[in-house]
Amino acid sequence: MTIAQTYLQVVQKRFQSVKELGDKTLAQMEEAQLHWAYNEESNSIAVIVKHISGNMVSRWTDFLTTDGEKPTRNRDDEFEDSLHTKEAIISAWDKGWQVFLEALASLTESDLQGHVTIRGERLAVIDAIERQMAHYAQHVGQIIYIAKLVKGSDWQTLSIPKGQSQAFTEAMLDKHQR
């Protein structure tokens, strides 16, 4: 396997992991909780989801052939809380991720050597992918943080529970040393 093939495989796995963290977080939330914001300057989970989805659809539709900032995108509208139901929020979430993950999966080794444009700026394809990794991971982290604040003691951890790190490490060592 070439380094480019390895990269494509690894980056798809990492993005899928970021999506799964978001999926598990959204599943824990009740509809009203998805619209909670700390203050007027803060975004709710619903708004962050709408923004991520808008970004994904814009950036990854015709990724290799058109500017990533599509004329049909209304970025400012993404920051208006207009997805009123949990179903609409999850639908937007799923739509964005579907467009993105399908485009990512379609990339070839030779595509990685090319360039794309975003708002007229020419970027190496790998740079554009890594830029989105930072962007999406940041926003999913925000979603998780907001959810933890809202859920309080009802939050169900997405990773190793407090006080169980050593047991988890031992189980992983046992699993991988066999």
The average pLDDT is 96
Q: How many angstroms does the end-to-end distance come to?
A: 25 Å
Structural class: mainly alpha
Mind telling me the C-alpha Rg?
Answer: 18 Å
Question: What percent strand?
Answer: under 5%
Pfam families: DUF1572
Organism: Lysinibacillus capsici
Protein name: DUF1572 family protein
InterPro entries: DinB/YfiT-like (IPR034660), DUF1572 (IPR011466)
Can you walk through the features of this model?
With 178 residues, this protein is mostly helical. The chain contains five helices and two strands; from the N terminus they run αααββαα. The protein has helices at residues 3-28, 45-60, 86-106, 125-151, 165-176, and strands at residues 115-118, 121-124. It has a two-stranded antiparallel sheet with strand order 1-2. The radius of gyration is 18 Å and the shape is flat. It comes from Lysinibacillus capsici. This is DUF1572 family protein. InterPro entries: DinB/YfiT-like (IPR034660), DUF1572 (IPR011466).
Which helices and strands appear, and what pairs or packs with what?
Layout: H1 3-28, H2 45-60, H3 86-106, E1 115-118, E2 121-124, H4 125-151, H5 165-176
Antiparallel strand pairs: 1-2
